[in-house]
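Cross-posting from the chemistry board since nobody answered there.

I work mostly on the small-molecule side, so proteins are not my area. We synthesized nicotinic acid and want a rough idea of how it might sit in this target. Sequence and SMILES are below. Is it possible to get a predicted 3D structure of the two together?
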Amino acid sequence: MASAYKQVPGRLETNRDQNGVIQPLLTDLYQITMAYAYWKCGKKDDIAVFDLFFRKNPFHGEFTIFAGLDECLKFLKTFRYSQTDIEYLKGVLSPTTEPEFFDYLLDISPKDIILYSIEEGTVVFPKVPLIRIEGPLPMAQLLETTLLTLVNYSSLVATNAARFRMAAGPEKSLLEFGLRRAQGPDGGLSASRYCYIGGFDGTSNVLAGKLFNIPVKGTHAHAYVTAFQSLEELKERHLRRKGTEESVDFIEIVKSWLHKLTNALGDFKIGSQMGILQQETSEGELAAFASYALSFPDGFLALVDTYDVLKSGIPNFSAVALALNELGYRSVGVRLDSGDLAYLSMEVRRTFKQIASTFDVPWFTDQTIVASNDINEDTIHSLNSQGHSINAFGIGTHLVTCQRQPALGCVYKLVEVNKKPRIKLSEDVEKVTIPGGKALYRLYGSDGHALVDLIQRLEEAPPTVGRRVLCRHPFQEAKRAYVSPAKVESLYKIYWRDGEICQPLPTLEGVKQKAQQSLANIRQDHRRALNPTPYKVSVSDQLYNFMHELWLSNAPIGELS
Ligand SMILES: Nc1ncnc2c1ncn2[C@@H]1O[C@H](COP(=O)(O)OP(=O)(O)OP(=O)(O)O)[C@@H](O)[C@H]1O
Ligand SMILES: O=P(O)(O)OC[C@H]1O[C@H](OP(=O)(O)OP(=O)(O)O)[C@H](O)[C@@H]1O
Ligand SMILES: O=C(O)c1cccnc1
Ligand SMILES: [Mg+2]
């Protein structure tokens, strides 16, 4: 896998990686057949404008995080058909294809393309072009599928991650555990990268950590626990007292702590049982925990649900943690991977508190409780309403597969050719495109929150602070409002021109921060999980009239008989 990623040396980017699978042939065949037909009928130098946008926010929500731009730009930077690509295409296209077309393809590059885009990480809304591509029609057409594949899943999973973050709140640690359940290795890598942008703190995916500089984190699996049956199996039993050369028999200390715990907490009602009883703990589990602690005395975190969380996992974990403490090490906590996570986390916390006061180890109360097991956004909301004591969530399947909505419907539509606007009509009004190249502004109210996104024609003067501007619903005539913005933000920048990236690109960390800031700028009611308020996306009066005139002139008048 690592070799699928290659270093891309660049003027503005250093140490950035590009996924080797992203190349000009990673597209749909029809892009190439259309390019041929454009070329053959004399349209190769026509100048086209395409908009990339989506029509509906995912997950019954009212916002989306725009992601994938960095990869789109790297795709432009490396876009070249290789000799073997051309040989392959010669075998795929019809034998009647003129040979000069293949010379044209061999030579083609995005040097005459201009790419305008919203900044990666920005909160975006339906109908708003996220990216605008201007340039020779065949080249602009050839970019469609690849740009869509780079933006669609990235934005979807970043949005999903942002929703999990909002559900969990800013204090909880969120770890992405999805690689094993993702849609293939590339889906897994993309998920790790874009979940980080959306607000996760780390991933268990080691390659993602290396490639994208994301913190890698993890615990251990049930296999590690079931690999042990008794303390006798442990070949290594010794641990150094922290900061000294003194080596002591750690296993003896662990055993004595289990004794102390069962003596002291014999009457402590934990769950439905009357106390911690040594005969109910699993010795194999104790051996697994002790041996893991010997390997990671400063980072000990145990998976406690293999046999019975309250009767075995927690007593065994506590014995090992207190033995570590006796030698100067601080354990980290536990992971719960089954059962009622609200109830168990509360019982575990209560037990930690009791142990903390019984043995005068106040820090023990705050040992980390990680929860995992098929967690989705609703589970987190439900846990919040029940009350729980979980500090960190490990989330895989539902996060990376975006179970609630597996695709964001981003599309790429032609809106202008040779300065002449194009409109795509549809029975479904929502599918009618907004013609021509457009400018985009986010207008803010005096409380600092975004009020509306305003799309204008390029030749219009930008809205200005304090000056009333008419914002119209793009399709419903009666829906319109005046806005006097307290702040106006122009959302497009040119990222690609003259064959190179022409903006400094933020780091992944920068994009992550942008996402959080941008989310904070929209009102809470747009962000809430249940029945959020739609954010307004409007067009200027001039654009409204322009598009509706074009609509009428393109819609054939029927004849009834
Ligand atoms: N308190 C809770 N409130 C709501 N959902 C919960 C709560 N606790 C756990 N869950 C969720 O309920 C589901 C329980 O799934 P399931 O019954 O398959 O697992 P389990 O029996 O606990 O564990 P396993 O089968 O993995 O041993 C999981 O999706 C989990 O995230
Ligand atoms: O549940 P997810 O959100 O996908 O999170 C990832 C899961 O991966 C591991 O399970 P494992 O593969 O060991 O299988 P399990 O379901 O039997 O625990 C881990 O214990 C989590 O439960
Ligand atoms: O580190 C973990 O606990 C982990 C990693 C991947 C999947 N499930 C759990
Ligand atoms: Mg599991």
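Reply from a structural biologist on the board:
Welcome over. Reading the output above for you: Residues 338-342, 373-375, 379, 382-383, 386 surround adenosine-5'-triphosphate (ligand 1) (CB under 6 Å). DSSP finds 18 helices and 25 strands in the chain. Happy to explain the token format if needed.
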